[in-house]
Design brief:
Elements lengths: L2 E5 L2 E3 L5 E8 L6 E8 L5 E7 L6 E3 L7 E6 L4 E6 L8 E9 L5 E3 L3 E5 L2
Parallel strand pairs: 2-11
Antiparallel strand pairs: 1-3, 3-8, 4-5, 4-9, 5-6, 7-8, 9-10, 9-11
Length: 118
């Protein structure tokens, strides 16, 4: 069965760093565009970053550009989100998503809480 399991969330101080991981199984990871989304308190889910299946082309939301880095390891079927210079407004539940390159098929993880507070 398809599984996407996020980990690495937690409490961090403003200005700190955190790395999220998305371990996947049950689908051909290398055929999927991987993305991180987040749901800010009281708001709808929005895109944070995406990475192409080849691991070269990336996109970022303006709010995180220069601070967050998305990456993937196709040998481990795992995607990552390295977050630096964290701000209180980054506090959210972060979700991992895989989208099939050639069809309308996508999978979502359960999410992991990131709280930025002193």
């Amino acid at each position: 069965q398809v599984r996407l399991v996020e980990s690495g969330g937690g409490l961090v101080q403003p200005g700190g760093s955190l790395r999220l991981s998305c371990a996947t199984s049950g689908f051909t990871f290398s055929d999927y565009i991987m993305s991180w989304y987040r749901r800010l308190p009281g708001k709808e889910r929005s895109l944070v970053a995406s990475i192409h299946s080849n691991g070269v082309v990336t996109t970022y939301a303006d709010s995180v550009k220069g601070r967050f880095t998305i990456s993937r390891d196709n040998t481990k079927n795992t995607a990552y989100l390295q977050m630096t210079s964290l701000k209180p407004e980054d506090t959210a539940v972060y979700y991992c998503k895989g989208r099939y390159r050639w069809g309308p098929l996508e999978y979502w993880g359960q999410g992991t809480q990131v709280t930025v507070s002193s």
